[in-house]
Amino acid sequence: MSADDELSRSLPAVDAWWRAANYLSVAQIYLMGDPLLRESLRPESIKPRLLGHWGTSPALSLVYAHLNRIIVEKGVPTVYVCGPGHGGPAMVANAWLDGTYSELFPEITPDEAGLRRLVRQFSFPGGIPSHAAPETPGSINEGGELGYSLMHAYGAALDNPGLVVACVIGDGEAETGPLATSWWGNAFLDPRTDGAVLPILNLNGYKIANPTILSRIPEEQLVEFFRGHGYEPILVSGGFDGDDPMLVHRSLAQALDDAYDRICRIWTSARDAETLADRTDERPPMIVLRTPKGWTGPAEVDGHAVAGTFHAHQVPLSGVRDNPEHLAQLEGWLRSYRPEDLFEADGSPAAILDPLRPVGGLRMSASPHTNGGTVEPLVLPDIAPHAVDVDPDGDGARTERAGATGVLGGWLRDVVVANPTTFRVFGPDEVASNRLQAVFEETDRAWQLPTVATDEHLATDGRVIEALSEHLMQGMLEGYLLTGRHGLITTYEAFVHIVDSMFNQHAKWLESAAHIPWRKPVPSLTYLLSSHVWRQDHNGFSHQDPGFLNVVVNKQADVVRVYLPTDANTLLVTMEHVFQTENRVNVVVAGKQEQPAWLSLDEARAHVDAGLGRWDWAGTEVDGEEPDVVLACAGDVPTLETVAAAQLLRQRVPDLRIRVVNVSDLMKLQDPEQHPHGLPDEDFDALFTRGKPVIFAFHGYPTLVHQLAYRRTNHGNIHVRGFVEKGTTTTPFDMVHLNDLDRYRLALDVLHRVPGLESKPGIRKLADEWHQVRTDARVYAYEHGEDPPWITDWRLER
Amino acid sequence: MSADDELSRSLPAVDAWWRAANYLSVAQIYLMGDPLLRESLRPESIKPRLLGHWGTSPALSLVYAHLNRIIVEKGVPTVYVCGPGHGGPAMVANAWLDGTYSELFPEITPDEAGLRRLVRQFSFPGGIPSHAAPETPGSINEGGELGYSLMHAYGAALDNPGLVVACVIGDGEAETGPLATSWWGNAFLDPRTDGAVLPILNLNGYKIANPTILSRIPEEQLVEFFRGHGYEPILVSGGFDGDDPMLVHRSLAQALDDAYDRICRIWTSARDAETLADRTDERPPMIVLRTPKGWTGPAEVDGHAVAGTFHAHQVPLSGVRDNPEHLAQLEGWLRSYRPEDLFEADGSPAAILDPLRPVGGLRMSASPHTNGGTVEPLVLPDIAPHAVDVDPDGDGARTERAGATGVLGGWLRDVVVANPTTFRVFGPDEVASNRLQAVFEETDRAWQLPTVATDEHLATDGRVIEALSEHLMQGMLEGYLLTGRHGLITTYEAFVHIVDSMFNQHAKWLESAAHIPWRKPVPSLTYLLSSHVWRQDHNGFSHQDPGFLNVVVNKQADVVRVYLPTDANTLLVTMEHVFQTENRVNVVVAGKQEQPAWLSLDEARAHVDAGLGRWDWAGTEVDGEEPDVVLACAGDVPTLETVAAAQLLRQRVPDLRIRVVNVSDLMKLQDPEQHPHGLPDEDFDALFTRGKPVIFAFHGYPTLVHQLAYRRTNHGNIHVRGFVEKGTTTTPFDMVHLNDLDRYRLALDVLHRVPGLESKPGIRKLADEWHQVRTDARVYAYEHGEDPPWITDWRLER
């Protein structure tokens, strides 16, 4: 039988599937009873609040039906990423037709009773959302915010060499910045070791109220656009002005056949090739599918055009309960899909759909890649060989120095080696800048474009991915994690704000997914933020912003963790921990510059395990006595200034009982009712006292400490120093000086705040002296261009 | 004289300018003495910390020199937007050669003494940053975060019909999402009424440590890429392998001639055309300039290739003070520009450069568009005709209802009409969705692409700009504001997080600019956030996030303002106010749904003026007596719930003295030491009492109130209800119920927290009753799909 004949035979079933999914999409938006239209539609069967969106659904189901045909025929595992917003009804409808929905939600049976629950729950109190959300089987992309579908798809395809990730992109979504740069995901996918992404751009012409740009440029320009991005576009168009849908079916089926064949040729060529030059230079395919918005919906409502216009975006027929004409039109619309041919008498999907239903995990709604079903355990090499040798048993001085992220880089290299196909490092051109370059001793950056002699560390199958887009890097990592693999993203602290909203959406995804029993836990999303606010010597004010932590702590406590490891060993221990967590977002802030290495590995383990603790070697505490003052600190630079301030005080005000407390797990500050890591009140009181002054040197904005600790007994005495939005291109010490976080300022704070201290003999003079040396440091820096030796040569003494 | 001859005559001067700028760029990075190399270079003339970046500078100066030639020849006013990061040295060098730098910074004289200060201040404590920052004359784009140059350029070109905005884009920057979608700015610029943007993509091949994508795709593909975006690319390439720079000069000069000629033809055609069809269909030009990274710098250092590789990104020669070989190499590099030909004996720029220096404001560094010099006053029509008629003098009931943003839309329409060339509305396809559609009664959306019959409100010269990119909309608005015009951006509250980082950068720009005397104030950036967290009936969890306020309050208090107008009239008054402000970021959060209109216009004026105040008509206060409890609220939905809770309490516990306080200016909560709007402590104490329970119903995350008010006397008694990250697609009342912000919960909070109240007769029973009716509301909603009538029909009674 010719390919053409085969198509002719299979397309009626594809059309039936499409009609069934469309029918169920409309039913979900409108109905709360009689889902199979056994009787004439009655007002009471209509939801009182019509909250769905219709416009995008028909094209989503069209692609779904056609992908089913391909999967059944070719047996190629395929993930469906649904980009457009409000695609929920279509994706749910298809998952129900697949049988997956009833398997995962046993109360939504594959019969009329199940259908009644299915249609009612959509956009209904206690029900399911309108997007392809965590609640949607087979989804790894919410579709709510728009813009992340294609990067999720590219992340999912990495290290899945047999997988096709079909990604339907809305033409509204395509206007977002993140999506616009995602087309370049093809520069990173190695056809030898990775799967393929098949972008399917649905040009339905309109967004909420505006036309879309890509739908209005001339077709010749559209082709140039995609060829310019390195794709071979395949154009499918139809459904306008009453086109026979069968023509579109045929054209789309051929396009998908072409695309899958092309993908297989590219795979085969890359896998058979001995050298890069032997690989085919065929471009990867993408499909442009131009169909009317809300296709198959009402052409006109109350005399106004709807299908094919932006009026089809939401609910085409409104006021249906009270408007008999609209009610009749809705009934006609629903019946136009001929439900009697699509469902058996008991309401189950008609037998004609059976040949289009792939088996088991080949159903896109049941793909094991999409619900955490394929999580590979991460092999974690020993951190001990990488630890900095800190010997606190000698004379008490701790004078070792190390760059924390540089040390971590050595271990990350081992992690990469130990997990050759399940761990990746992502960064916006900052992996080396953040001093993780040791990974390049064992791997390279993935790169499929031409190379030249002056390039370094590029290879088609490198385990590091870098493009200068925080969006693309985070999105690919999310796609990689949501399909069960492991990794981290490293970026400059200030610029992680670029992906604030992506963080929000991913945290919300995890918050929702945690309540869905069939979604297995996925590896956590871990940020390593370096090149932080305090060390922007090169970059200045635009690069100084520690406010990501403020964004993070707003999300549900079950999901978010914030770590401020203060030296190399605490960073190693922290990273070893966070890589073992699931369903969380871990934010780790660590410096890349050489800094004191305070803690031995054992000490670091105990400290990170506790999350915070006394550093008796830095203070002057007498066991069993309450200190006069607590110097608390979180973050590497504030810790250095705090330890130095304690030393100043120790040496000059030896009677003062100083407690130094370092916080490495920020959420310890919060009440245990508010966060699972929260320190119990009695422990907090024991550590921070119930009434002594606390000078808290904090990495970020000072009010964050107040926000977290406002319920604590001693909160009224906590005086926080942190970043107060002062800074520029200057020396490291001048930065802490500008923001009043320097050692002299902290020591002066102690003099001012410990009751009675200022009136003691010599203290006024000491304060003057510290003011002077602080000023001298600035004068020196502004004259010489670097910090004075009494700052740069400072070491902890005992 | 032929054009070719003319070029031959002018190019030596262009080359000299370029060499002078390069010389000064290198000098800024390295030198702190002897800027003209009067002697052999000595170690002490080298900065101790070498913090600059060289890689991008030569191409920036090349373009600058060539644009000077064009401006002098053609007299077309041109703004230079410098996209690449670390372009500061080049832009400063050119501004000094222009003469502008010495005019604006009188201590940086146009002579050797000035040069000494000029080179020393760069990336030096107390000096200037390495980016094209606010400190850089002629800059409207920081270049620090990367990605916003082209959108700033498009914003600057709007309504400046004679202006060319030349925008140099780095090939690293071009990988960011925001830049990737900015190419579509050409869909909005009307050649009849707007200026032109001339993008100049500099392909220098490398980012920090990676090659760039656009530099590695085949040239044919690159051409398709730009044609696909609707441009006519003009390719200029050279400088590799010792190419004669004069060849590049000739080629770039011709490219710029072509581009300007093309722009003028497009302008003329559009302005002469009677109909759209008469306009030329010539595409706007863009230039691809391929030059080596760090061109003219050291080809090799210590045997490793530098120029043309990513090793040229930062400081090509390190350790210069201590490494005599590097010192010698630096001297050779500097002398290679032949400074003796470029500076007069006194250190002023050589006469050969004079013909390339445009006069006055035609100098790009002195363009009046770029430093607030062209701010047009905004004409503000009367808000009174738009006010909702609220009559509080009747029986005391306030039962008017209105959608706040819908009412505002009517006034915005008048603002658009009153400011036909200086005010614009930007939105990511949400202007109508946020109910501002009244503006379309008088204007349209700007749109240069083909239209079809089903489009609505599109025109080439519309005053509203919409693309589905929060980035592009905010960036174009920033460009519009920074060049002295007015506008606002309206977006969904949750998705404003997409531009968190752009907000940060703009706020930092304003913070820095405020200290630069020659930068005139610019109109404020105003966000109207609607479709907020509490009314996501259609969209659910992914659209619920009020955390932008947390990001905003971290920035310097002089710059940020947050308003939560609670009804239509307070919104009108608030917007009238914010449009009159300068150098600020105003965040206004307002609902679009129908809500009670509580305040008459006069009341609203007084309330907004105060920023917060007692609503005696809602409480049960007796003048002169302290209330038993304060019910505070901020935001429209929390206010409704608070007023309803007060009514419950009024009717059922009539002896209770309740004070209702509404906060419309959030920063009133903060200490006046921390924010200029902060309420003095004595006033705060008078309003919130010094010891009574305060139940605060807040629009956003509850901890934000604690963060702002933690210093207040009565802070320990403030109990905040707000969004606690619970929500989904459900009814409006169920949303407040889910987050414990509903009227019953607030009333129950009062019962629990007013000392002794719970033990009074009947109170326990009342509490049970309220618990029950709260539960009943949910049961009703989950059964009927809508809120019960006792919620939807609720009205304030007295």
Automatic annotation (TrEMBL), chains A, B:
<dbReference type="InterPro" id="IPR018969">
    <property type="entry name" value="Xul5P/Fru6P_PKetolase_C"/>
</dbReference>
<dbReference type="Pfam" id="PF09364">
    <property type="entry name" value="XFP_N"/>
</dbReference>
<protein>
    <submittedName>
        <fullName>Phosphoketolase family protein</fullName>
    </submittedName>
</protein>
<dbReference type="InterPro" id="IPR019790">
    <property type="entry name" value="Xul5P/Fru6P_PKetolase_CS"/>
</dbReference>
<dbReference type="Pfam" id="PF09363">
    <property type="entry name" value="XFP_C"/>
</dbReference>
<keyword id="KW-0786">Thiamine pyrophosphate</keyword>
<dbReference type="Pfam" id="PF03894">
    <property type="entry name" value="XFP"/>
</dbReference>
<dbReference type="InterPro" id="IPR029061">
    <property type="entry name" value="THDP-binding"/>
</dbReference>
<feature type="domain" description="Xylulose 5-phosphate/Fructose 6-phosphate phosphoketolase C-terminal">
    <location>
        <begin position="592"/>
        <end position="795"/>
    </location>
</feature>
<dbReference type="GO" id="GO:0016832">
    <property type="term" value="F:aldehyde-lyase activity"/>
</dbReference>
<dbReference type="InterPro" id="IPR018970">
    <property type="entry name" value="Xul5P/Fru6P_PKetolase_N"/>
</dbReference>
<dbReference type="GO" id="GO:0000287">
    <property type="term" value="F:magnesium ion binding"/>
</dbReference>
<dbReference type="InterPro" id="IPR005593">
    <property type="entry name" value="Xul5P/Fru6P_PKetolase"/>
</dbReference>
<keyword id="KW-0456">Lyase</keyword>
<comment type="similarity">
    <text>Belongs to the XFP family.</text>
</comment>
<dbReference type="InterPro" id="IPR019789">
    <property type="entry name" value="Xul5P/Fru6P_PKetolase_ThDP_BS"/>
</dbReference>
<dbReference type="InterPro" id="IPR009014">
    <property type="entry name" value="Transketo_C/PFOR_II"/>
</dbReference>
<dbReference type="GO" id="GO:0005975">
    <property type="term" value="P:carbohydrate metabolic process"/>
</dbReference>
<feature type="domain" description="Xylulose 5-phosphate/Fructose 6-phosphate phosphoketolase N-terminal">
    <location>
        <begin position="11"/>
        <end position="374"/>
    </location>
</feature>
